[in-house]
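Predict the 3D structure for this chain.
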Amino acid sequence: MKKTGRKMRRGIEGAWTLVVVAVFLGALPVVSIAGAVEVPTSDEVALNLTSGIETSLTDQNVVDFLSDLDGVYVKLNSSNMWPGKGKINWLAANKSLIVFIDVKTLAIEYIIENKMGNETELSLMPIPLPEPELEPEPTPTITEKSWHLVTTFDSGGDWLTPPFPIKGNMWRIHYVVHPEKGRDVDSDFHIDVYNPGYFGHGSSHYGSWYCTGGSCRDTLYVYKGYKDFVIEVKSHHNYWEVEVEDYY
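Done. Predicted structure below.
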């Protein structure tokens, strides 16, 4: 009676293992297990019980074997006759399945079905594992470029602006020139674009524009960016306004 009690306690442990695996796979009805779990001796090849049961349940032969049974014994053992392999034995009243599992890779090597003493090797029928659900990649946010006001200047006469930053690769200058009253013919306006710190050097000069002899307005485009710039204005007999816009 004591021996039976040990078997039942071990059988309950096996039953809990199977239930967990069945729920995880979502492909096997809950099967109550009553039986013995044999732990390998030190000179045998060890196979973890949980890993062995989980591995054996990845073959359709085992799933089909368990699906129509009310109770089954599960038994773990190994033998020096099969080096590197462990066995999971699924035992019913008149038939059994022995699943040979490679201990290192946990791959099923082969399955033997025993019906009333007649043994047959079954063709392996691996159950495809469900592919993990991948989270959809976030749709990249495309920000439309637009014009942004950077700074404005207005004065009469010559002027060198403070440095101002340009974030985009293109920017523009709007200017308006108003001649002094009665001095239209004498009005002269000249504008240059430089990098700060290199003022006056030809290599850092990005353009010159001018208008003379009256009122004028225009928009100038500069196709250099990602740095600071300064504007130099030279004017006579007029009042001018300058507006800088950045495109990003």
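The radius of gyration is 43 Å.
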